Amino acid sequence: GEKEFDTSFRIVHPNGDVKHIRGTGKVLRNEQGEPVRMIGLNWDVTKEKESAKAIEEYNQLLEKKNQELNEFTYIASHDLQEPINTMNSFSDLLLKQYDEQLDDTAKEYLSYIKGSGVRARQLIADLLDYNRLGRDKELKLLNMDQLVKEVLEDLSAKITESKGDVSVGEMRFVKGYELQLRLIFQNLISNAIKFIPADRTPKILVASKELENHIQYSISDNGIGIEEKHFEKIFAVFRRLHSKTEYSGTGIGLAHCKKIAEMHGGSIWVESEPDKGSTFHFTISKNLS
Ligand code: ADP
What we know:
With 289 residues, the chain is of the alpha+beta class.
């Protein structure tokens, strides 16, 4: 040959087994330039070949499943809205127009139906929001001092009502998706205000620090805390640790936060001790483009 030998090929063993082989060789030539000898090496790359192929197939499958799941969530939640709206409007009508004919027990039952209808509508709206997250994509360099200040203004009624105190440390700038970062702070700060024992006032600290490849933001509270065994599952869609009468909510907020952190090349986690308080940390990659 004119050039060095480097190739891959298959061999089929007598028992039918197929092996993938990589072979490389060096040609030694005499003074006239004629090839006289070849030194080379063959080695078995079957495992590497198979795992690369398996990873590729798996990635394609995942992508397809993910797409199907998104479509399914959208269709399911969208189509569910209609029967639920009908149910809600007719229970309203029954309560309004048949007020005289209904006894107290019937009214009570109807109000349960209505309550569940309203809740179902909220769950579906949340699910649709979750599915929509990430569709609007405009990366911007964000002044996080300003962003957190605005989030606190939006939450000012809740903060005043709870007599809460929120301190904000230096907020490092970051490149990210504005709406989503606003949402993550809004969710985490609202939770910090909400999950507080009735006899305590919220003390919340918002801070940031720079890591090698990420900026880390943290929201600490002095609330009811979370047991370690729940640290992972609170980030799943519709996972809650309390009844809705104890603390309101649908359980999607932290799932939103997780999706947002991951879309920013980061992650989210919690440190907490029951009855002492919780700190939620999330990171945003410094290299988003
Ligand atoms: P929601 O607030 O609607 O219940 P989230 O997804 O925001 O839903 O939170 C999920 C669960 O995690 C909550 O129901 C609560 O049990 C727990 N949790 C979240 N934030 C806090 C916090 N700051 N302190 C204590 N528990 C929390």
